[in-house]
Amino acid sequence: MYALRCAAEENCLSRSAYSPSVRDLDYRVLFRFPQRVKNQGTADFLPVKPRHEWEWHSCHQHYHSMEAFSNYDLLEISTERKVAEGHKASFCLEDTNCDAGVRRRYACTAHTQGLGPGCYDIYHANIDCQWIDITDVPPGNYILKVTVNPTFQVEESDYSNNVVRCDVRYTGPYVHVRNCRITGN
């Protein structure tokens, strides 16, 4: 799979995928999920790097403007020990949709990336690296923790709405997600 090779370049797969014994990346178990990030503030959410430092990724055919946008952690319920993880290593930031009466201003280009107030950046579940590789995770109950701007690279007036937690039931063939809520940590 070509897409998994691109994902491997960005370290989007679990550690076991990089083992010398793994010769074929065609079989991985991926917990895919969508993500919608809204700028609820009053100022633009802009990449920290200047435009001339944005990286062109030929696999994805767009510029990546940030090193770390989101972390995805799958946690044990009782101990909150991390059993698997994923991340948006870098990304293409744009106003995918906006609230009524708010105009889109940012697109995924070499010149304009950002997220305006009242706008959303939406990542559908079929986008590369929009997952956690759960190949090595046994079925059970877990917590999905999604953290936006995890290293606080972009200054915000309020970081308390950057973490969402969801209850997850992994049965082997299926993943059921419910009760997603903003938690603050």
Structural overview:
By secondary structure, this protein is mostly beta strands. Helices cover 4% and strands 34% of the residues. The strands form four sheets. It has a five-stranded antiparallel beta sheet with strand order 6-5-10-11-12, with no helix packed on it. A three-stranded antiparallel beta sheet has the order 2-8-7, with no helix packed on it. The protein has a two-stranded antiparallel sheet with strand order 1-9. A hairpin with a 4-residue loop joins strand 11 and strand 12 (175-182).
Helix and strand layout, with pairings?
Blueprint: H1 2-9, E1 30-32, E2 35-38, E3 55-57, E4 62-64, E5 70-76, E6 82-88, E7 97-98, E8 119-123, E9 131-133, E10 140-148, E11 163-170, E12 175-182
Antiparallel strand pairs: 1-9, 2-8, 3-4, 5-6, 5-10, 7-8, 10-11, 11-12
What attributes characterize this protein structure?
mainly beta; 12 strands; three-stranded antiparallel β-sheet; 185 residues; 1 helix; five-stranded antiparallel β-sheet; 4% helix
Q: Into which percentage range does the β-strand content fall?
A: 25-35%
Structural class determined from secondary elements: mainly beta
Number of helices: 1
Gross geometry? globular
Sheet with the most strands: spatial strand order: 6-5-10-11-12
Q: Give the biggest sheet.
A: 5 strands, antiparallel
Quaternary status: single chain
Please provide the count of β strands. 12
Radius of gyration: 17 Å
Order of helices and strands: HEEEEEEEEEEEE
The portion of residues assigned to helices is under 10%
Cα-to-Cα separation, first versus last residue: 35 Å
Mean pLDDT: 86
Low-pLDDT ranges: none
